[in-house]
Write a structure and sequence with these properties.
alpha+beta, four-stranded antiparallel β-sheet, EthD domain-containing protein
Length: 106
């Protein structure tokens, strides 16, 4: 199994935290669940972190059977639709998104 994580590295604009969360749950999560070949979607909102740790207010983890399934998902139209929606979300966020791909241990 392959997990692709998107780490939202930065900060939500002050006073827009609830709006940010609502945008993710109402507009983005339904799209992420429609990704081709996705087995599982986990969306995590940060609650706390160690002193000095980077700020990741949102982490998305998508699980796929293998690298081929992930590659198929990354080429599908829904990915590009979700990227356009994410661009809207970023108007409430100072920072960037970086992705990491992991193989689950058995």
């Amino acid at each position: 199994m392959i997990v692709r994580q998107a780490l939202f590295d930065g900060t939500i604009h002050a006073g827009r935290e609830a709006e940010f969360r609502r945008f993710v749950t109402e507009r983005l999560m339904p799209m992420w669940r429609r990704f081709v070949s996705v087995r599982d979607v986990k969306v995590m909102f940060a609650l706390e972190r160690d002193d000095g740790a980077p700020s990741y207010p949102l982490v998305l983890a998508m699980t796929f059977d293998d690298a081929a399934a992930l590659a198929e998902a990354l080429k599908a139209p829904i990915r590009f639709e979700s990227r356009a929606e994410t661009a809207e979300l970023m108007k409430m966020f100072d920072g960037w998104i970086h992705h990491h791909v992991f193989e689950l241990a058995e």
